[in-house]
Amino acid sequence: MVGAGENGTNRRERLDRFLFFARAVKSRTLAQKLIETGAVRVNSERTTSSDRKVGAGDVLTMQLRGRILVWRILDPGTRRGPASEAQTLYQDISPPAPDRPDNDPVRTRQ
């Protein structure tokens, strides 16, 4: 018998596992550290709890690799698969990265 959680519609996953499955980070340990620093919000609420449950419809806002990422979870996933599979777990609704002007000191340093 298939329970409601097994068909994917109501299934929820730990936040650290989702970030690992979605390939936002390379390991669950790194996911836990990212969450504990407060760099992740779930539905606009900052969380420092890596065992927070997330599922389809939740929106994650993260500061990662110098960018603000906003992901809508489509499926919490069941494993860490290839990148092509990981990209099906979320919809990236991040704002576009700001363009750097030509006179930006970071770009013109020698």
Automatic annotation (TrEMBL):
<dbReference type="Pfam" id="PF01479">
    <property type="entry name" value="S4"/>
</dbReference>
<protein>
    <recommendedName>
        <fullName>RNA-binding S4 domain-containing protein</fullName>
    </recommendedName>
</protein>
<dbReference type="InterPro" id="IPR036986">
    <property type="entry name" value="S4_RNA-bd_sf"/>
</dbReference>
<feature type="region of interest" description="Disordered">
    <location>
        <begin position="77"/>
        <end position="110"/>
    </location>
</feature>
<dbReference type="InterPro" id="IPR002942">
    <property type="entry name" value="S4_RNA-bd"/>
</dbReference>
<feature type="domain" description="RNA-binding S4">
    <location>
        <begin position="13"/>
        <end position="78"/>
    </location>
</feature>
<feature type="compositionally biased region" description="Basic and acidic residues">
    <location>
        <begin position="99"/>
        <end position="110"/>
    </location>
</feature>
<keyword id="KW-0694">RNA-binding</keyword>
